[in-house]
Amino acid sequence: MKRLPVRFRAEDTTPGRRFKWPVATCALVASNLAAWGVVAFVYGLSPFAQQNSSLLLRVGAVNGELLRAGECWRIVTSQFLHVNFPHLIFNAVALMLLGAMLEREFGAWRLIILYLCGGTVGQLVGVTATPALVSSGASQAVLALAGGALVGLFLRRTHMRRATLIILIFVIAGQVALDVFAAGHIKAGHLGGFSAGAFIGYVLLRSVKRA
How far is CA 85 from CA 137, 157, 187, in A? Predict the structure, then answer.
């Protein structure tokens, strides 16, 4: 019998696969929440108090000067640090929605690659565009997931097409609104993360088709 493509195999639509617990997504969300809680505890802050940029530089945020000094590890650690609690919650919710959907469809390791690589590119673009500013937050990585999910709508059949569109509108519109409210424009790092996510998502989804 001719072997069917991955997207048409029966096991892709079984309840056990469709509703499998998104372990990688939960781990990423927990990492962001844990980073906030650890910083608040160590520095004696209220759980809901703002964590200013100068404080976050001590624990892993990044700017152009530190990046040029060779502290490249900050490009990754900065993705788990946030200044404002509402921003953290927005990113956590967006990550949970997008991540759970992508993990169920394409697997945990592809989700993690998309999150970390897309977020890293976004952070690099942001630091390059505004080297004097302190860069932190998971927005670049979350928008990378959005870019990957958008590409997925065109490359792969999904039983959650309508839900995907609703989630994408929520995430992208919410992030644009936050950017305009806080900075008056869409941040370069966010555009970089979204674009990188679309490209990385395309590559990863092609690998799903060939599996």
Answer: 11, 36, 19
Query: For residue 37, how many other CB atoms are within 10 A of its CB?
Result: 11
| Residue of 4, 19, 124, 1 lying closest to 67 (CA atoms) | 124
Among 136, 143, 135, CA closest to 200: 143
How much is the pTM?
0.86
Phi, psi of 82 (to 5 degrees): -135, 150
Give the separation between CA 110 and CA 157, rounded to whole angstroms.
17
CA-CA-CA-CA torsion sign (13, 18, 23, 27): positive
What are the catalytic residues? Answer: 139, 190
Is residue 190 predicted with pLDDT exceeding 70?
yes
Query: Cα(first)–Cα(last) distance of the chain, in Å?
Result: 18
Q: Is 120 exposed, middle or buried (0-12, 13-18, 19+ CB in 10 A)?
A: buried
Q: Please report the pLDDT score of residue 103 as a whole number.
A: 92
Residue 137 CB-half CA count within 13 A: 31
Residue 10 has pLDDT above 50, yes or no: no
Burial environment of residue 96 by CB neighbours within 10 A (0 to 12, 13 to 18, 19 or more) = middle
Closest CA to 203 of 146, 139, 152: 152
